């Protein structure tokens, strides 16, 4: 979600009311010069690293059949959502922050904001699903009636459809808007309710005052819903799931949970934690700014940009976590990078455990050879 345009329009608005317009413009221009380099470097790194990393995850799933576990199906969809975000959101946000103008037209504005909201919801809900998958993997040992690829695929398809449909109103809630600051015309992609607030209204006109108050209420409702539905409630759900998981682990014997399952669970915990930590500051900042109406003065724009950079960096972190935390992903990455797409034996070994499956054909063949050699010796 792009809130800098909303902030700058509010800044322009508030400065006119306080008769300190020139000071606010100086703040704005100083911000542009100081933050442009940081934004450019951060967003460029996000695009390059995120594109390479998530493409590796995608290729790993497509070409290494042994990696197609239920958890990795969810990881695949995380990579798809992050690639959509990188292609359709990060570049536009970067250009918008650096240039402080929107050059891409009204249609792209709507698509950009729609995609940003869709991917935000999909990412956090997939993490909830991944946490639930880990709970079932450990707490429902031997029970595959619920936790199987078919059910996971159905759940993910439903998730995507629901999120895509429920976010359709965003196509009508954001639009391109032009205004002037320091005798310079600016075009922004902005939440339309902020346009109503930015206009000069007649205090004696009751209908205009009602429209103004309604717009303020809708802005608060918009950011409250986003904060609760795309961050707080999913995070609470994840905490509950892992609380139940920890309780279950204390009840069952350690030997009942394999080492590989524990490692995968740890990897998922790290992925979830990185998302919560990266997106938390931005979510809290938006909530305080638009709902609580905390007066940050000029520094809030700098904080907004920094928190936005941290949040966007999360899109390139997950593939790195998979590689560090999971040996199978490291091997799969290496196989893809050396263009070894043989899904039957991607790691060039006779006994390779990939994900959670074993190449049984190779083991049986080797066992027959050993028996044959043994018989020859006895003869």
Describe this structure in words.
It is a single chain. The protein is mainly α and 379 residues long. The chain has two domains: 4-343, Rhodopsin 7-helix transmembrane proteins (Rhopdopsin 7-helix transmembrane proteins); 349-379. Helix content is 75%, strand content 5%. A hairpin with a 2-residue loop joins strand 3 (353-354) and strand 4 (357-358). The longest helix has 46 residues, at 206-251. It is globular. The model is unreliable at 14-30, 346-360 and 373-379 (pLDDT under 50).
- Main beta sheet: 2 strands, antiparallel
Question: What overall form do the CA principal axes indicate?
Answer: globular
Gyration radius, rounded? 26 Å
Terminal residue distance? 76 Å
> Structural class, from helix and strand content?
mainly alpha
The count of helical stretches stands at 14
Query: CATH homologous superfamily of the largest domain?
Result: Rhodopsin 7-helix transmembrane proteins
- Total strands: the figure is 4
Please tell me the total number of domains. 2
Relative helix content = over 70%
CATH class bucket of the largest domain: Mainly Alpha
The CATH architecture of the largest domain can be given as Up-down Bundle
Mean pLDDT: 79
Draw up the topology in text:
Elements: H1 4-18, H2 21-63, H3 70-88, H4 90-99, H5 105-139, H6 149-166, H7 170-173, E1 174-181, E2 184-191, H8 192-198, H9 206-251, H10 259-292, H11 299-313, H12 318-325, H13 327-337, E3 353-354, E4 357-358, H14 360-378
Helix pairs in contact: 1-2, 1-8, 2-3, 2-4, 2-11, 2-13, 3-5, 3-6, 5-6, 5-9, 5-10, 8-9, 9-10, 10-11, 10-12, 12-13
């Amino acid at each position: 979600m792009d809130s800098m345009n909303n902030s700058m329009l509010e800044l322009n608005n508030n400065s006119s009311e306080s008769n300190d317009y020139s000071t606010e413009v100086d703040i704005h221009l100083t911000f542009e010069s100081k933050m442009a380099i940081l934004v450019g470097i951060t967003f460029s790194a996000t695009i390059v690293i995120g594109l390479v990393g998530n493409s590796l995850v995608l290729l790993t799933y497509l070409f290494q059949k042994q990696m197609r576990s239920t958890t990795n199906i969810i990881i695949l969809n995380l990579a798809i959502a992050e690639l959509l975000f990188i292609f359709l959101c990060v570049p536009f946000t970067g250009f918008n922050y650096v240039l402080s103008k929107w050059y891409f037209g009204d249609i792209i504005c709507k698509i950009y904001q729609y995609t940003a909201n869709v991917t935000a919801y999909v990412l956090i809900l997939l993490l909830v699903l991944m946490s639930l998958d880990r709970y079932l993997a450990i707490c429902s040992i031997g029970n595959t009636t619920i936790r199987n690829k078919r059910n996971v695929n159905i759940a993910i398809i439903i998730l995507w459809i629901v999120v895509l449909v429920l976010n359709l109103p965003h196509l009508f809630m954001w639009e391109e808007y032009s205004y002037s600051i320091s005798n310079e015309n600016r075009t922004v992609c902005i939440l339309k309710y902020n346009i109503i607030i930015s206009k000069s209204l007649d205090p004696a006109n009751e209908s205009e005052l009602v429209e103004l108050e309604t717009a303020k209420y809708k802005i608060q409702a918009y950011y409250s819903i986003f904060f609760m539905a795309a961050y707080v409630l999913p995070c609470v759900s994840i905490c509950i799931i892992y609380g139940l998981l920890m309780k279950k682990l204390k009840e069952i014997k350690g030997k009942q949970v394999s080492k590989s399952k524990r490692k995968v669970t740890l990897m998922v915990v790290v992925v979830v934690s990185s998302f919560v930590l990266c997106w938390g500051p931005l979510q809290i900042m938006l909530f305080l700014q638009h709902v609580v109406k905390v007066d940050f003065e000029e520094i809030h724009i700098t904080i907004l940009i920094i928190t936005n950079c941290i949040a966007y960096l999360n899109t390139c972190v997950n593939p790195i976590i998979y590689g560090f935390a999971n040996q199978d992903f490291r091997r799969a990455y290496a196989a893809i990078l050396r263009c070894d797409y043989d899904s039957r034996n991607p790691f060039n070994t006779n006994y390779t455990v990939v994900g959670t499956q074993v190449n049984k054909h190779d083991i049986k063949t080797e066992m027959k050879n050993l028996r044959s050699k043994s018989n020859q010796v006895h003869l």
